[in-house]
Give the backbone structure.
Amino acid sequence: MNLVEALAESLSSNSASRVTRSPRIVSLPVPRLPGPVERSSSRYAFTTIDERGRLGDRSLVRALDWLPGTSLKPAVIDDQVIVLTRSPGTAKVTKLGHVRLPAAIRHRCHLRAGDGLLLTTSDGHDLLVVCTAGALDQMLGAHVRGERE
């Protein structure tokens, strides 16, 4: 079940007990965070992948100071999350500064041209995490359903 399905199910189960006289906009259920929210050291970007495996957004690659030609080693978690570290490996930063995922990684993760991906990195860590839409659906759906590890 993805995030939209989980929210739709949650809203439809709550709507039976409500009487509405006119259409109204229902806000998304946002959890209250305990205490003040601290500034995050994480950086995020949402991008797509092209037919050659290049990630469109380069902002996090620049933030990591990964120069063209930098060799990257990909690791895949559950066929949904790719972790790239700066070490000898099968991925590279192209001449124009894009990360290019090898075909074997794209096939394993079922990635096609145009697929949306969430990229994230964090200060002090020399790695880039690439989450597929499927991984995001699973994580956000679990959060909405209140599942905890």
About this structure: The first strand starts at residue 42 and ends at 48. The chain has a mean pLDDT of 83. Residues 53 and 106 are 7 Å apart (CA to CA).
